[in-house]
Amino acid sequence: SAINFLERLCLTWMFFFMMCVAERTYKQRFLFAKLFSHITSARKARKYEIPHFRLKKVENIKIWLSLRSYLKRRGPQRSVDVVVSSVFLLALSLAFICCAQVLKGHKTFLSAAYNWEFLMWEAALLLFLLRLASLGSETNKKYSNISILLTEQINLYLKMEKKPNKKEQLSLVNNVLKLSTKLLKELDSPFRLYGLTMNPLIYNITRVVILSAVSGVISDLLGFNIRV
After folding, report:
1. What domain count does the chain have?
2. Could you list the residue ranges that cross the membrane (predicted)?
């Protein structure tokens, strides 16, 4: 019993240590995204002591897109995604087991000690996933903020009226900004759940298995069929 307890304690510590490393990586990504969103604002760039430039030249737009791509790839990517996917799969498995136990007999569900352990693990994993989902969602909002490009387009239109002799050059920059806006919309991955990278297989399992299990539990508790 003592050896079993120590093994479970060590495995639990290692698992939560990897989750803390993943959360730290997500915090760094959010910090990079936050500072990146302040580059085109003179006031915020001065406040955070970072470089500032406007998107009024084609060269500046190229630098802005390259910097965005570099910051999104900075830091560990695949290892952190593997940790998050593993946590998500474990939470899915525990949720499925709990739903199956409730369907088997919801009156005797809380009488078993291992069911309490499952619930504690599920609560801890859900809290961790909610934290990562919040950080990932905020990071995606910073990188996918198209209002920056729209603001620069408005500034270009105002400059065209003030400087008609540079209308051709400013029109070229405006066309590049429009293409950049379309590019940012196309780059959004369809397999992202509030900023968490989702494998297509995991995405489909979530939709089919878990929603079906939750539908069965709700139908069993309420007494009539409900399809989620």
Report:
1. 1
2. 6-26, 82-103, 115-133
Q: Is residue 225 part of a domain?
A: no
Whether this prediction's pTM lies above 0.85 is answered by: no
Phi, psi at 193, each rounded to 5°: -115, 95
Asked whether residue 149 is domain-assigned, the answer is yes
What digits encode the pLDDT tens for the residues 110-161?
Answer: 777 777 888 888 888 888 888 888 888 888 888 877 888 888 888 888 888 7
**Secondary structure class of 16 (helix, strand, coil):** helix
Name the DSSP letter for residue 226: -
Q: Does 226 fall in a domain?
A: no
Mean pLDDT, residues 45-68: 87
| 192 phi-psi bin (left φ>0, alpha ψ -120 to 50, beta other) | beta
- Distance (Å, whole) CA 152 – CA 54: 8
